[in-house]
Protein 1
Amino acid sequence: MNARETRDPCSPRGAGDFCLSCVLTSGLLVAAVVASFAYLEIDFSALFAADSATAMARFAASFFPPDLAPDFLQKTAHGALQTFAVAMIGTLLAALAGLLLALPASGRHGIAAGRLSRFLLNLLRSVPELVWATLMVLAAGLGPFAGVLALALHTTGVLGRLFAEAIENAPPQPEQSLREAGSGGVNAFLYGTQPLVWPQCVAYGLYRLEMNIRMAAVLGFVGAGGLGQMLYYHLSIFQQAQAATVLIAMFVLVLAVDALSDRLRTRMARS
Amino acid sequence: MNTDTDARPYAARDPDTRARLGWTLLALVLLWPLLLLAEFRPWALFEANNLQVMGAFLAGFLPPATSTEFLGLLLKATLETLAIATAGIALALLIAIPLAILCTRALAVSLIGPGPGRLGGSALRAAGRALLTFLRAIPEIVWALMLVRVFGLGPAAGVLALAVTYGGMLGKVYTEIFESTDTRPTRSLLAAGAGRFAALTYGLLPNAAQELTSYTVYRWECAVRASVIMGFVGAGGLGQLMDQSMKMLNGGEAATILLVFLLLVVLADALSATLRRALA
Amino acid sequence: MAFELQGVGLTHGNGFRALQRISIRLGRGERAAVIGPSGAGKTSLIRLLGVATRPSEGRLNILGRNPWQLPAGELRRLRARIGTIHQAPPIPPRLRVITAILAGRLGQWPAWKALLSLLYPVDIAGAQATLARFDLADRLFDRCDRLSGGQLQRIGIARVFYQEPDLILADEPVSALDPALADAALGELVAESERRGASLFASLHAVDLALKWFPRIVGLRAGEVAFDLPTAEVSNGLLHELYAAEGSVLPTQASAPAALRHGGATAEAMAESGDGTLAANVVRLDTCRGR
């Protein structure tokens, strides 16, 4: 057999070795799955029974045809634009805040400031957007602005961490040499390190924007405006035709933004 | 450099100016409607009634709720979240494995030779790939929102939503792993007349098993987070409890749940790392 | 007086003694070259004088101040008066030439001016005039990663000219240039020092260039001053003794080592830290989103 030369098929252990921990872990995993189903007490016979299947089919069929009436299309377009705006503004705010936190987090302003800002970034990052959104709906009232804040808070954590890493990994000589020529900290960063990390930071921001478009579309479920709020509303009053239109709009929006940022990225890579 | 440009005096103006100015203006012109659409009103944060609501809510964070009754509820919800993630991944495997086997070119008997049924085979593979794309194109929380309408509030919708989306993701990644491992043993087995199943177990799995399990465990970790999130649309677990506490503006309960959530994420992280090591 | 070293030594963290018992004095407006075999401590000496490293022992006086006893603000003002030309110019590859040159005056600019200049260069004429002295004025708005190693090295010199320092230090400033250009660039360095009365202290690999352009030569070997004489008194025997470890041929322009691509190489290394790691990074931090 060919593979024997490149890699032993039974690696990393030979077939003869009995791997107790593997067997034990596999057994535990199976037990965990069985216990999960038992705990949830889902009646799967009912789920997959004939009448449930027809109910499902009927539900799926009720999405067709989507509502394409002009005034509803206009409402959907507004929702899509709002979702886009929420994602854009949220990401923009996050990029600014992330940069401000990334400077101390990269260890430029002492160990204490570094620890503190890292902790803050981790905290922001580990609370999901949707949880932030429920909190922000309380703080800023229902509507897209709560979504902007929620996205901004979570994304600040993510981008701040990435920016900090980029700054840490940039070669130090350019900034060092400017400092040795008497330049202050801000100036040395702007002319020494900033040009090195800028393209990377922009790419991170664009990547995050794509994610945030998807996220902004669902933040509406907790009242943060946009397409999500429309979807939630129409589904809750059993208007599946309208919901189908909104789903299509989400899909188109996501594809459009992906294509746009893809083009921007290739443009940047070329320059 | 040609003589033409040499003869001219050097540009005394930055040639990038016009482009920069244009982009800046464009950005400003676009920013304004975006701010309007997003109803960007930072001062809303400082309106008296919002401040009051948020202040009272945050004040309630301390002390976190610790009544035995609530902790019992919390434990139940946490277990439910873990169970949803585990059951969801198990069902996702039921979707992912057959589709991955269907879509893997290395396992296609008809491609050898190429033999009869080649066109039908590739059409089937394309259909399988399209199905995988469709399944993962819609976020799990949207599936959950819709499935709650069919199956009612509770974990069933969450489990199925996870199964659908993660089935799509796992199927795609499994296919990629199969395609990227050394496919020569599989080819030779198939060429020697072995069946698909034999070719899979003896040809592909030995090389790909570790990567497959590692990725699956990692996805489980993600499923734990996702199942918390899906609770917000009524799919059971910790998220549903958090949603209720927040709607009732019960800061103490919200604080406890948030702490438990962060702990759960950290633990799932650690557990998944240990599992991946144990299975390596 | 430009600087005065008395019994200065430098010991690195690993215990290596890079410099010892160095005593040199350079008068205001005076020019001197330091030569010596590789590893003699030329770069360490330049870094010491540029207030980039702190000496382990001895007394150091630069432009009339003891730099390591100055408060932070004073130290910055002192450093702004010293211009160091590096062998591999530490210029970010994506920077435009004009920005790289204007960066010479960052020590004098407040932050708002530095920021403004990133959006629209504040002193195009000044940068252009400086660059014209190196026949590179037409590259003013090019990006630095479009330049050759030799062009980049001349941009590095131009930056220090634009800084207008009282003390110019140069660490192998022409190592990436071909003989004709190297000669011209050194000529510009000397002319600049004459024109503004700035002191010039340069380390050079090519002995012939040092002898041609500098009235005073300091020979450095194994971290110690071997000789410090007016050029007329530097004999062939002294030079051969200095370079004894490197064989019987003195390093000159013609036999310059393959340092030619040096500047370009660092620029490439810097550029490489760009996008390669991006995807992996994002996926790692952004756990559950890889679709």
Protein 2
Amino acid sequence: MLPTGIQFSTYTGEAGILKTNRARIGVLLIVILLLVAPLMSGPYLLGIGTQMFITLIAVYGLHVTVGMAGQINIAQSAFVGVGAFAAAKLSSYGLPFWVVLPLAAVITGLVSVLFALPAARVKGFYLALTTLAAQVLFPIVILGLPQDWLGGLVGLPVEPLKIAGYSMGSPKHFYYFTLALVLLATYAAYNLHRSRLGRALKAVRDNDVAAEVMGVPVLRYKITAFFTGSLFAGVAGACTAWFLQFVTIESFTLFASVWYLGMLIVGGLHSPVGAILGVLFITFLQEGLHEVATLVMRSQSHAVGGAVFATTNIVLGACILLALIFEPRGLAHRWSVLRTAYQLWPFPRQ
Amino acid sequence: MIKLLQVLIDGTLVGLVYGLVAISFVVIYRASKIVNLSQGEVLVFGALFLWTFTFGVKALGYDMPLWLGLLVTMVACVGFGLLLERFVFRPLIGQPAFAIFMASIALLVMLRGTAQLVWTAETRPFPAFLPGGALQLGPFMVSTKLLIGALFTIALTAGLHLFFTRSRRGLRLAAVAEDHNTALSLGVSVRGAIAVAWILGTVVATFGAIVFLSGRIVSLEVASIGFKALPVALLGGLESIRGAPLAGILIGVGEAVAMAYLDPVTNGVASNVLPFAVMIGVLLLRPQGLFGWKKIERL
């Protein structure tokens, strides 16, 4: 919904991602804010920011697979893990980051294609079960491979990221690196919606039988949906590897996958805004719970380490259920209602 | 030869335990069209209820006979099933399958969190309902506990199969498994069906816990048996009660053979990968499983 008095004489104007000057200024302000934020924040906030950017990239991927193409993927964390291990292994050979990053993404994409193949025969939750198999098999396979391949139970250490000889190991530098990637990913996610691929994916989501009849090669697009979503996951995985500077299977569990999905559902499946709002909301919730937990731990002497994880899980599960029952369109819908009301003011909203 | 036969016997018995857990999947799907990914957590809940009403109560100083503990556990399971129906699945009736599937995933993290918060992650002994030890049959050793479990599984399968195909109530549930909206328009109570599904699902899962865990140790990690039973349920066909134990035997035997002959070569991977390889194979070759309903789609 656009403010009154805005019209377009060309298709390019109509199809633009940022249609008005106000929107352009708004986005510019957000980017500037993100650019200057590290100058005013400590390492703790920087870490959360970086972590949020990485998560957002992974959730964008899920937005493509689940939100746009309607294919349930409960292995996003395993795919992030594949990207992380690929990046760790490749950078141990001394390859530069501009080789490692795309290669890790493509490897992750190819692995996901392997699990998308049953789309030839099944759909819906049956297809989701093959992604579940991917998630369950991921640690088994990593542990089963010889120790000197991918580290097995111990994990792989990762050299800090180096770009053209400069080390990007410090939190501030790495924040800017992930910021650049997340801006790129955001552009890609928005752009996908107005591309041929995006329209085909949405047709498959809305009714795959009808899409097939209309001449959309459904199987190819379902597999492409997984491939595209996993490219994002691979990038997020490579960033995770450089961020933690150590990769183990412990970081890529089923629970992480459910959290990614939860962020997307709470935020809203059908637009990239949903991914952003979901990641923000769940991250704030998580950090809030951590704060409360540390306070509780201080007041009571006995440690309650596992309880934090447990409570986070309960709250996240409750958030997903509440979103599914009361607002399946997610926070993104609430946000657009709010925006429309603001833009149409003083007229009543539609 | 004797080793192979022993492996086959062990595989069959363990497979029937998988079959029992798979039945708890199938009854939920067969009565309400809900694929419940959190079945492993439901099983852990059943096991923890049982621990609470036996050893937990004993630790508080009250002595409860084993049969009474079992009875109270079953009542708790029924309450648990009704609670899930009322607050999670009733509001989702008529929603797309995607929402219901997601709800079961949300339930997975929620139940795990609740179990960890209430009972903490420590491991506890599980009451020994079934006699331990092994029967000596000629040159073979047969675990008594698993043998009783296997007989129980077969009896339960026969009973549930009769319920679903012969009784009026069971046949109504089949309508719900076909389609929620059609069932509603034909006057079948979907709420009631979902309640029955979850009560049956939790009770059968608790039976599974009894057979699987009797005299062993219960911890939150036990939930992973849910993911092992999922390929079994899929192989047997999600709508088929009788398919579950049969598929359980197939996968159990396959796993046991892989464990005995392939694991030494593959660093222990083969037996773990096998159920999921079978699952993907089933999805590729025969998506409805061995005895499931084949679905025809129209535009």
